[in-house]
Structures are given as C-alpha cells and as structure tokens.
Specification:
This is FAD-dependent oxidoreductase. The protein is of the alpha+beta class. Helices cover about 30% and strands about 25% of the residues.
Length: about 475
C-alpha cells in the first residue's frame, strides 16, 4: 500500500470509524491503523452498549453539558461543537444505511433529569434497537468496507512524525516486527481510546488501586503518550467511570459487572467491615449524588454482603441475553450461572454459614461486621435508614443463612481525559495553540470533564470523529 495518504486515523472504534467515513466523504484518501487483529479490534466501542443519546435540542444541550461539567469547565467552542454535532447523529447513520432504532429498555430518559438543559435528552438510539452485541462496531466495519476504506490490522502506531516546524506529518508503525513510516498530507487523527488498561496511568491519574477493567485491554494510553511527545496539553485526566464489579479470576485483568437488580438483600461494607454509604444511591455512569455533589463511585475496594434470599433471586452478573456488554461476556463468552453456584464454587463469591465465619474468611473483625449488618437490619425493620438514607423500598434485610460476600476493587469502565483539543478536534499544546496536523476524538480525548449521561460516550466519539475527519480532509499543510 502507498505510504502517503491524506488522512491517517489511529484506532478503529466509533471515533476512528466516524473520522474515516467523514474524511472519505469529503474527498480525502484515508487509512485506519489498528494495533489489534480483526477479531478483537474496535476498542470499547465493540464491547460497549453501542448506543448514542438523541439530542433533540442543541441549545438545551449546551446548557445540559455545562451543568454536568459543573466547576470543571470545558471551553465554549468545544461545548458548542459538541451540542451541534451530537444533534442529528441518527440521521447521519441512516444516510449510511444503518438500521437505527431507539431502545426502550435502557436510557429512555435522562439520568440527570434534575439539571438544566436535560430536556435535550430524547432517549438512546442503537443499531436495530438492541444494546451491545458488537452491533454498532460491526455496522461501522461494513460501512468502511463498502467505501473501500482500508483498515490495517495488527499495525501499532508507536510515534508521531513531525517536520522542522513541529507539524505532525505522519506516523511510525510496527507491524509483524517491522518498523515503517506512513505520511499524512493533511492530518493524523488520534482515536486510540482511553488508558484504563495501563496500570501505571490508572494509579497516577485516577488514583485507583488495581481495578479490574470492563472493556478493551488495548486501551493502554497510546494516543496520550504520542500526543505528549509532540507537546500536547492534557485535560481532566482524573475523570472516569467505575461501576460495581466482581473480580473473577485473579490472573485476568478483566472483571464482571455486578448488577444488583434481582433483590435488595445486601449491604456495602468498607474494608474495615463498616457500612459507609447509601447503597440505593443512583449510579449514574460513574457518579452518585452524595454530600451535595456528584462524586465518583465506587473508587475503592469494598465488601458486598448478601444472604441466601438474594443468592437465589438470580445471577449477580447479567448474561449476553440481558446485557451483551463487556469483554468477558462478548470475547470470552462467559455465562454467569442462574443461581450463582458456579461462581461460589470458583471462589469468586465467598460463602459462610454465619456472619462471624464470613467475616473471618474476609479477614474482617466479626464483631464489626455483625454490628454493621445488625444495624442495617434494624433499619429494615423500622422502614427508615437513619444512618445513610437508603430508599425505604430497597430496605431488605440480610438475615437468611448462608451468607455471602463479593469482595474486591471497582470495575473500571473507561477513562475520560486525554490531549486537550478545541472545537475542531485539533490537539492543543501547553500554550493553547493547535498542533498543526494533529487531531483527537473519542475516549482518547473525551469531552466530559465530570458527569455524563447514558449514550454520551458513543455520541461524543461519533460527533468529534466526524468533526476531526471533516477538518483534516480540507486542511492544507500550511494551515493549523
């Protein structure tokens, strides 16, 4: 293949695919570089729910995003571009012949309905009205193929090439043990995903201790490293989404999603065995409302103690037929047992006949655990949780032996921070100036500095992928 093209896109998820499709539509020659093979490419787009929120009112969307960001502000031009370009995404996909339909099962209303501007949120669209199952990614792959856009799989981008002025003019790659260079006449677009699978970056920026990951193990911060090497500034590197999880196999970096849907006979205990929070607080894509603000949750290891009633109520982790999301479900085909017994036998769920025995197995003080559970059960009897204000409808006691616990760190869904960019998706240096020829989109440089709603990540990736592709396609080398 010719090693000179107009636009090079690094990464084949929603942002990279959208960038390539838009640049191609605007007359540019495009190639996508993807470090994974064809079976496990696509980053978190392939492993996610694959839905994007329907923005029915760009003016309200501007207000909504500012409210979600709070004091962690994002530049006005970025907000304007986000509000305008997340509007009409479904129409654009339909123009590509995507079978777009709204899902009625998930995110039919805004999670943050109390915030100004939430009226922009009109539900979430997906491919075929279904969540997950790689549906969005597989459609994008087919759309690229129909247009003759090449994706070079098993090709890792290792460095950005610059000219004497500092403009980005290409990419150094490694494929099959061979290092080579590819040059871009108009621009390079970083769509490399987040850094949640890079333990050092997770510790440094997110301050998490050895979390399990939900999505792609290829999200190792490659774009962040390459952008920094050419002088890029960074933004909101401490923002993320964590969820409750189950560690599973100790030697696997991935974990299982813990869905507390089937029953309420459980309590959250700290690493010291004490109840520490309201278990019924709505978990809104990595945040809960606590102490007057939206805070990340969970952020540290905890023990989720439950009883036989909950164990028999259904699987703790939903299967592919319910929520076809996550690497262990989609790539490994793991099916959680209906009664959780298989996972008990594996040791993923700790079982004991008494709370004292359970505490011993967890390495906790039995007296502390027994007191914590007793006080919670007393709140259930009273119908009011004086300590943490748990929703009375969820006050179900932990009383039926045997007793169980899931113990471990949170599940890290994705990081949000990356190279700072402007409303044209151009990467900015530490002085706030565009680095000529360099763009970023998707989780490599997510718009979201704080809270975000359902379907926001895919919408952001598609929107700014298109913005980057359009700007790069019409750029000439002398322009920023």
């Amino acid at each position: 293949m010719d090693n000179n093209v107009d636009v090079i896109v690094i990464g084949s998820g929603a942002a990279g695919s959208a960038a390539a499709l838009q640049a191609h539509a605007d007359g540019a020659s495009v190639v996508i570089l993807e470090k994974c093979g064809p079976d496990n490419a696509g980053g978190n787009t392939r492993l996610s729910g694959g839905g994007w929120f329907v923005n029915q009112d760009p003016a309200a969307a501007r207000t909504f995003l500012r409210a979600l960001n709070g004091s962690f502000t994002v530049a006005d031009d970025v907000i304007d571009a986000w509000a305008q370009n997340t509007h009409g995404l479904s129409d654009w996909l339909r123009e590509l012949d995507a079978p777009v339909s709204m899902t009625g099962e998930f995110h039919s209303t805004a999670e943050y309905a109390e915030l100004d501007g939430s009226s922009c949120y009109a539900g979430m669209d997906t491919i075929g009205g279904a969540m997950g199952n790689e549906l969005l990614y597989r459609f994008l792959v087919s759309a690229l193929a129909e247009r003759g856009i090449t994706t070079l799989f098993d090709t890792e981008a290792t460095a950005l090439l610059t000219d004497e002025s500092g403009a980005v003019i290409g990419v150094e790659t490694v494929s099959g043990g061979t290092t080579s260079q590819m040059y871009a006449r108009r621009g390079v677009i970083l769509a490399t995903g987040g850094f949640e699978a890079n333990p050092a970056m997770v510790r440094d920026y997110l301050r998490l201790e050895n979390p399990k990951i939900w999505g792609s193990p290829s999200a190792t911060g490659d774009g962040h490293r390459m952008a920094q090497a050419v002088g890029a500034d960074l933004w909101h590197m401490n923002n993320m989404m964590t969820i409750t999880g189950i560690s599973g196999d100790t030697d696997d970096p991935s974990g299982h999603y813990l869905a507390l849907w089937n029953a309420h006979n459980y309590v959250f205990l700290s690493q010291e065995g004490r109840r520490f929070t309201c278990e019924s607080a709505e978990m809104r894509h990595g945040h809960v409302f606590k102490e007057g603000s939206y805070q990340h949750f969970p952020v540290r290891s905890m023990n989720i103690v439950f009883d036989e009633t909950m164990r028999l109520a259904g699987p703790l982790s939903p299967g592919r037929d319910v929520l076809a999301v996550g690497r262990l479900v989609l790539d490994e085909g793991y099916e959680w047992s209906a009664d959780n017994q298989t996972e008990i036998d594996k040791g993923w769920i700790v079982k004991a006949d008494t709370l004292t025995e359970l505490a011993d197995k967890l390495g906790l003080d039995p007296a502390v655990v027994e007191t914590s559970v007793r006080r919670y059960n007393e709140a259930c009897t009273a119908g009011v949780d004086e300590s943490f204000g748990r929703d009375p409808a969820t006050l179900a006691p932990v009383v039926t032996a045997p007793f169980y616990a899931v113990s471990g760190p949170p599940l890290l869904g994705w990081s949000n921070g990356g190279p700072r960019r402007d409303g044209h998706s151009r990467v900015l240096d530490t002085a706030g100036n565009p680095i000529s020829g360099l763009y970023a989109a998707g989780t490599a440089s997510s718009t979201y500095s704080a809270a975000k709603d359902g379907g926001f990540h895919i919408a952001d990736a598609l929107a700014f992928g298109r913005v980057a592709g359009a700007h790069a396609a019409t750029r000439v080398s002398a322009d920023a």
